[in-house]
Amino acid sequence: MPIENIPEIFFKDPKVQQDIFVYDFKMTSDVVKSKVNLGMNMFSFLQVGKKQVHFAGKSVAVNKDQSLLLKKGNWLWTELLDTEAIYYCKLLFFSEKKLTDFLSKYTKDVKPYQEKVPYFVIENDDYIASFISSLSSITFEDSPYCDAILALKFDEILLYLLDKYGSEFEHYLHALISKGVSPFKNIVEDHVHSNLKLEEIAFLCNMSLSTFKRHFTAEYKEAPGKWLKDKRLQKAKELLQGGDLKASDIYLDVGYNNLSNFSVAFKNKFGISPTEI
User: Fold this and answer.
1) Where does the record place the HTH araC/xylS-type domain (predicted)?
2) Whether 10 contacts 92, CB under 8 Å
3) What pLDDT is recorded for position 15?
4) Mean pLDDT score of the chain
5) Contact in structure between 36 and 52 (CB atoms under 8 Å)
């Protein structure tokens, strides 16, 4: 799975650095779990379709009635078409410098949330819908006032969201410029019982697969594949012992692509098949 560097792949001239950048994104085929290196903080104003994102130990899914503000970094995300076979969103990217200037002008010197949540879910309303309609990568493209207009649009949406969400949003904005990085173990253990592959967990840790494996073995004194497999099978056993779920209900959630492989691995581990629990 190749890594997409966003927003750089959307720039007409990659050599030109931009503090604020708008891109109209459309597609007509589902994208299943892309790796994205997000180089700038970004608003994703979703208009048609659905979007799911993973960042370190956090994940969230939104629909067309919601928008997202995402912090820069490595993301896994899935974009899905709606019933009309289209996906459409408007993306507004902004630099840390632009955000710092805004915060110094309009907000207090507050401490960011300790958990450093990487996303903020925005519930769209009439004002936001109107704002989205006014935002386009081509509207001001040939205007000598393009940069100034986009700067005003940036201030407008942040001020509106500050008014809408209050201190919760203010704390989140300050957290975006925090330099803290999620610890390696937190990321790994937040995904123990997910269906993410080793390669995908390594990506969320900002590591190549080989570096991740070395780091993991040094930290846990065991190969990551075996460690994750044992943890996930143990979780599967606990779920089955609860009596409400069958193997067919859980095999995907514990990292297996098909029921047969899960059943074989389970029997090799515990000496009995899942149906015997």
Assistant:
1) 182-277
2) no
3) 63
4) 85
5) no
Sign of CA dihedral 249, 253, 258, 260: negative
Q: End-to-end alpha-carbon separation of the chain, Å?
A: 37
Contacts of 226 (CB under 8 A, 6+ apart): none
The Cα 185–Cα 175 span in angstroms is 21
Q: How far apart are CA 226 and CA 217, in angstroms?
A: 11
179: pLDDT strictly greater than 60: no
Beginning with the edge strand found earlier in the chain, give each strand of the sheet holding 41-48 in spatial order: 20-27, 87-94, 41-48, 66-70, 119-123
CA dihedral over 183, 4, 119, 19, signed as positive or negative: positive
Contacts for 268-273 with beta carbons within 8 Å, 24 or more apart? 269/230, 269/233, 270/233, 270/237
Mean pLDDT of 191-197: 81
CATH code for position 263: 1.10.10.60
User: Which region among 136-140, 164-168, 202-206 has the lowest average model confidence (pLDDT)?
Assistant: 136-140
Which letter does DSSP use for residue 2 in this model?
A: P
Indicate if the pLDDT at residue 13 is higher than 80: no
Q: How many domains does the chain have?
A: 2
Q: Which range marks the domain in which residue 166 is found?
A: 3-176
Q: Of 153, 176, 199, at which residue does a domain stop?
A: 176
36 plus 89 within the same structural domain: yes
